[in-house]
Amino acid sequence: MKPLKPSMKENKRYLLVKGKDFRDLEKVILEFIGVLGMSKTGLAWIKTEKDYAVVCTNREAVDSIRASFAASSKDIQVTKVSGTLKGLNN
Question: Domain 9-82 maps to which CATH number in 3.90.1570.10, 3.40.190.10, 3.40.50.1240, 3.30.70.3250?
Answer without folding.
Answer: 3.30.70.3250
